[in-house]
Amino acid sequence: MVRFIRPHPGQEKILKAKTRFRVVACGRRFGKTTAGQIAILETAARGGCCWWLSPTYGMADQVWRDLKRVGRELGRDASIHEQERRIDFYGGGWLAIHSAHSPDRLRGAGLDLAVLDEAAFMTPDVWPEVVRPMLTERRGGALFLSSPNGRNWFWEVFRLGLEPTEPEWQSFHFTSYDNPLIAPEELEAIRRQTPERIWQQEYLAQFSDDAGSVFRNVREAATAPPGAQPLAGRRYSAGLDWGREHDYTALVVIDAETRQMVALDRFNRVSWSLQRGRLEALIERWRPAVVWAESNSIGSVNIEALQAEGLPVRAFATTARSKTPLIEDLALAVERGELALLPDERLLDELAAYSMTRLPGGGYRYSAPPGGHDDLVIAAALAWRGVRYGGAGVDFV
Ligand SMILES: Nc1ncnc2c1ncn2[C@@H]1O[C@H](COP(=O)(O)OP(=O)(O)OP(=O)(O)O)[C@@H](O)[C@H]1O
Ligand SMILES: [Mg+2]
Predict the structure, then answer these.
(1) 9-202 adopts what CATH topology?
(2) What's the confidence (pLDDT) of residue 104?
(3) How far apart are CA 69 and CA 80, in angstroms?
(4) CATH classification of 236-389, choosing from 3.30.420.240, 3.90.25.10, 3.90.1150.10, 3.40.50.300?
């Protein structure tokens, strides 16, 4: 018998179920991938023909490394084929690892079991067009393991498993708290720093219909009085996003004590030197302790010009990695009412439309919807960064 990891009680429920199609919605770190590995090893060791599917090459790679280790421990009872990423078991069973990235190439003999890890991040055609036909002659089963990704096809198969009229389907739901190896305090610590929407989807494994929107309670947070005047002795923080071709240059100023937005400006189609003049005037007026400015492309030249004027401008390079905490901090502040926004329609619209896409394997990509703007969002997020951290912190590169 193959020795791997002993399943925890939540995994045991999934593994013991005899239903043909098992759909499992789980929170991060529940042990989805591990449960799938146990299932595939058991089936292949008993003579079954099995496929593992991951949404990306990288994720498939990781699983291949894990399973190969087990294969090696079996010595002569298993042979490993590196090229095909297949392990043949003594007794005729085998398992092969694939990435669902290029499903066209996925053809072959009939299967007894297909494991779809992070199924919600595969395109909707993979299951019906590639995997399902492979299960016909051997009446094979499928194990779908995933954290939710909005109400997409994975949600639909999850709902099938809740239908009493579908005896071949069964659904399971587990949160991250259901992994007994994770200390609950650890999850509480994550929760304190995570916007509610992300928490619900990622850790509580809830399917939400508006999973794409980032900012909640935007209108409720628009309580800052317009027309504020600079007050002596106050500490202000500013954020600045440079407009590119069709975008606007935006500046947002926040009072670091009252945590109210006090000023906001947005303009385009003027020369960079005119823009800088207008920004300098605003910065002179509010005298912020720090101005965090986006430094990509045209940013750095303009930043150097403002710095040459003696203004406290710091460069922030937005990359996929640096953007996540920048945006999530602002989202947390808005949804918890810690930052009062100016009731500016363009700002509120940009915030309401701003969206996130979950990436397979964890993390989000943040952006304005196609055709939309995000200059005020970025400027606000940078100003908020200055409120929280002042001018401190290293730029992400
Ligand atoms: N039954 C188990 N016994 C011991 N350790 C386990 C068990 N199940 C999972 N783990 C460990 O818990 C961690 C999370 O497991 P795993 O990667 O399977 O979870 P996951 O739900 O796939 O996570 P992610 O959401 O990051 O994909 C890993 O370090 C794994 O080795
Ligand atoms: Mg996993």
Answers:
(1) Rossmann fold (3.40.50)
(2) 56
(3) 10
(4) 3.30.420.240
* pLDDT for res 272: 83
Quote the pLDDT of residue 48: 96
Which atom of ligand 1 is nearest the CA belonging to 35? 18
The residue nearest atom 12 of ligand 1, judged by CA position, is 31
What is the value of pTM for the model shown? Answer: 0.81
Q: How far is the CA of 33 from the centre of ligand 2 (A)?
A: 4
DSSP category for residue 132:
G
Q: Which ligand is nearest to the CA of 147?
A: 1
Ligand 1 near 170 CB (within 6 A): no
Considering only CA atoms, which residue is closest to atom 6 of ligand 1? 31
CB 358 less than 6 A from any atom of ligand 1: no
Pair of tokens at residue 313:
């401008």
Cβ neighbours of 229 (radius 10 Å): 8
Spatial contact of 211 and 239, defined as CB atoms under 8 Å apart: no
Residue ranges of alpha helices (H) inside the chain are 9-16, 32-45, 57-73, 153-160, 184-192, 196-202, 272-286, 299-308, 320-335, 345-353, 375-389
Token pair 């990704």 in the structure block, residue: 149
Q: What is the rounded distance in angstroms from the CA atom of residue 342 to the CA atom of residue 270?
A: 25
Residue 177, token pair as written in the block: 């708290």
Find residue 95's DSSP bridge partners: 50, 87
Nearest Cα neighbor of 214 from 339, 42, 329 is: 329
Looking at the CA of residue 26, tell me the nearest atom of ligand 1. Answer: 21
Q: Is the CB of 11 under 6 A from ligand 1?
A: yes
Domain ranges of the chain: 9-202, 236-389
Q: Which helix (H) or strand (E) holds 80?
A: strand 78-81
- The residue type found at 158 is F
CA-to-CA dists, residue 47 to 44, 120, 135, 386, angstroms? 5, 29, 15, 60
- CA separation (Å) from 155 to 120, 144, 364? 8, 11, 19
Mean pLDDT by 10 residues, the chain (397 residues): 84 96 97 96 95 93 94 86 93 93 69 96 93 94 95 94 94 97 95 90 88 88 95 95 84 97 90 87 95 87 91 92 93 95 95 90 85 93 95 53
- Distances in Å between the Cα of 16 and the Cα atoms of 8, 66, 316 are 12, 22, 51
Rg (CA), the chain: 26
